[in-house]
Every structure is written in C-alpha cells, then in structure tokens.
Specification:
Blueprint (H helix, E strand, L loop, with lengths): L1 H46 L3 E13 L5 E13 L5 E12 L6 E14 L4 E11 L3 E11 L4 E12 L4 E11 L6 E3 L3 E4 L8 H4 L2
Antiparallel strand pairs: 1-2, 2-3, 3-4, 4-5, 5-6, 6-7, 7-8, 8-9, 8-10
Length: 208
C-alpha cells in the first residue's frame, strides 16, 4: 500500500512539473510576441524623419556673393529635419534689399505658404500659393527659386505677371528676372492681356 502511494505521488510531481514547464514556455512566448512590436516601434522612431530643431517666428538674412543684395526672411516656423542640410519654412515673408549699410533700398516683397532654405548651397525655393511684388509689378508662380551666385529669380508653373503701371497682364510657364523684378522674361505659351492701369500713376512712370 505504501509503495502504491509513493508511485501516485511521483506521478503527481511529474505531472505538476510538466504543467509548470508548459506554463513557463507559454509565458516566455507571450513576452517575445509583446516585445517584438515594441522593438519594431523603436526602429520606426529611429528611421522616422523627426525634427532636429524647430524655431517659431524665425528671422533669417541671406546675401548674394558680393553682399549687394540681402534677403530678410521671416517664417512662422523653421524646421531642420535630422541629418539634412536644409530648413523647411512655413508661412514665409521675404523683403529684398539692394545696397549696403544706410544705402539699402527695398526692391520687392515676397510671400509664400512654404519654402526651403539650403544654407550650404546658398539656395532658396518657395512654393505656391506665392507672390512677389513691388510698386509696379506683381508676379505669381507655382515655384520660385533664388541662389546667391546668380542672384536672380526663376519662377515655374502657372506664371501670372501683372504690370500695374502699364496695365498689362502676362501669363506663361516660366520667368526669370533680377531680384528687383527688372529685366523680366517670360517663356512657354506666353499670353498678353490689357487690364486697367493703376490710378494716380504719371505718364512718365507708365512708360518705364
């Protein structure tokens, strides 16, 4: 009888060991499954382009090579993505000046929904809706680019140019000009339309 009880106890112990062993394996597998998504999430965060720096109400000055032109840029937000040599700009306003010191003269004003600044290359690019204007001319484009070496505007896309003084509206696919919007050239499916001239402009100004 004693031997029978001993056999039963051994069987129970073996069964209990198998049960706990199975439970341990099950718990281990569950932990592995739960930690796997966490690892993937961490990997995604590492690979994701997260902002390295962000500045609100940013102010930036950019010059051409000989510093005769300066662009005073204000952006509601300026963001530098990690490991990238560019700044993303949001709600941008740019004042374009020519001259140095006390002789600086405002030549044009630009507004754009967004833009990019590449400090290493000295390049700026703006995206629509955007417009650049002075007292006489207003230009709209899909994209507008500038670089400090050439110091000229290059606009592409749906180009609309309104000469308020001469009463002329030009449209095309591309334009180039000096930073003060002088020597403006339009290319690609160019169309011209007469519009009402700006009131209060002298005949001499209109004939410029």
């Amino acid at each position: 009888m004693k031997r029978k009880w001993i056999v039963i106890v051994i069987i129970l112990l073996i069964s209990s060991g198998m049960y706990y062993g199975l439970m341990d394996d099950k718990d281990t597998n569950n932990n592995s499954i739960q930690s796997s998504p966490q690892k993937n999430k961490e990997q995604e965060l590492t690979d994701e382009e997260v902002p390295q720096s962000k500045v609100n109400d940013a102010l930036l000055k950019v010059y051409n090579l000989d510093k005769t032109t300066s662009l005073r840029l204000k952006a509601e937000e300026m963001i530098q993505p990690s490991q990238q040599n560019k700044f993303q700009l949001k709600n941008v306003m740019v004042e374009v000046y020519q001259g140095q010191g006390n002789n600086k003269v405002l030549q044009a004003t630009l507004t754009a929904k967004s833009g990019l600044y590449f400090p290493k290359d000295g390049r700026l690019k703006f995206f629509s809706p955007l417009s650049i204007s002075n007292e006489e001319i207003k230009v709209q484009a899909d994209t507008l680019s500038w670089n400090q070496r050439e110091n000229r505007w290059l606009g592409r896309g749906n180009i609309v140019i309104i000469h308020k003084v001469k009463g002329v509206k030009l449209s095309g696919e591309e334009f180039t000009s000096f930073v003060d919007l002088d020597k403006l050239e339009v290319k690609g499916n160019v169309r011209l339309k007469r519009i009402a001239r700006k009131e209060g402009v002298s005949g001499e100004a209109a004939n410029k």
